[in-house]
Write a structure and sequence with these properties.
- With 385 residues, the protein is an all-beta fold.
- The chain has one domain: TolB, C-terminal domain (Neuraminidase, 6 Propeller).
- Helices cover 1% and strands 49% of the residues.
- The protein has one helix and 28 strands.
- A four-stranded antiparallel beta sheet has the order 3-2-1-28, with no helix packed on it. The chain has a four-stranded antiparallel beta sheet with strand order 4-5-6-7, with no helix packed on it.
Length: 385
Amino acid sequence: MLKSPLRPLSRRPLLAAALLLALIVASAGVGFLRRGESAPSIRAATVPQLIYAAFQEDADILHLAPLDAPGRSSVFATIKHAQGWGIIGALSPDGRWLAYAVLPVGARNPQKEAEAHLLSLTGDGDRRVAQGVDLQVAPVWSADSARVAFGQGVAPEGASGTFTVLIARTEGGDARAFGAVTAALAARPVAFSRAGDAIYLAVTTAEGTRLDALTALGQSTIAPLSTNIARDFALSPDGLRLAYVEVPPGALPQVRVLSLTGDLRASEAVAASSAPVGPTLGPAWTPQGQLTFSVGVPGGQTLALRSGDLRAAAADSLASAPANGFDIPLAWSPDGTGLAARAITGDLGAVQGARLAILARGNTRLVFGNADSKFLGWVPAGVGG
């Protein structure tokens, strides 16, 4: 029987870095400003800025790092949390809001007692929008930055449960239930549909992982994704292709792409490329819709496909990792000039360290942060006070 991919929980972002799944999620652990507490407005810059959280035992420190000099980051907020539990969050596409889940001080159950928050990066403060959310489930934004989805619910060990999707709006108000999935080991939102009227969910059962859609009319199954676990989802800018990492039983992880249609249907998922030898990790789309991913072996390359025809597309090398490690792409900057990545030292079976990095064409590689640094998103140039 397939067990839930969300258990056990880790208290730190990359504490169990040697574990394969912790590697693939690229330090997925991630707080808590009091409701209504004001937060400073970030400063606008002429280049995109990366936001990351530096984990501490009782708080996460939010840093703002310019694309061209990420080592010269500045601190702009501190989010308090329960001892040993960091936030998990995501920046809105317009770079003005940070949605995050946090286990508040004094709470103990990260799957039932976490809170959902929206933090304005332009001076409008922090507000709690829901209680009782799952700290393991990363928030997912709509393309217009108006709505964000959080996950709620947990299945007992070895049994099925019910999982609810909550939607919060940046314009105000508390999060409200949008729909629920039953008879699942795990379910989490992965993207809003192209039209914005549906939410795609990765649903894990004893048979594997499938893609479902939630709409105002209910739940429907879109396509199977894996007989085991699928994760690290990335929707293309046009909303028509969903890339993800499949972790087959007893095999190496592989990036696959599912083609979607406007009527919530999909074609068979295909491998991102047949050329690389070894595990493929970290699917990320450029703003122009070019798929990038990395080969997870020491000295492995980060590749960019030349066309959308995945079965025949040739790949260009964006950057090469050092001989003692590899990179896992996270997300492209809004202008397409830099790629945030997790820089791993070691190999999949023996991870020795991890930091953040910004990759650029021409084999430029700027490394910063440490194993407890969690990437949260990009702020476009010009956004801020």
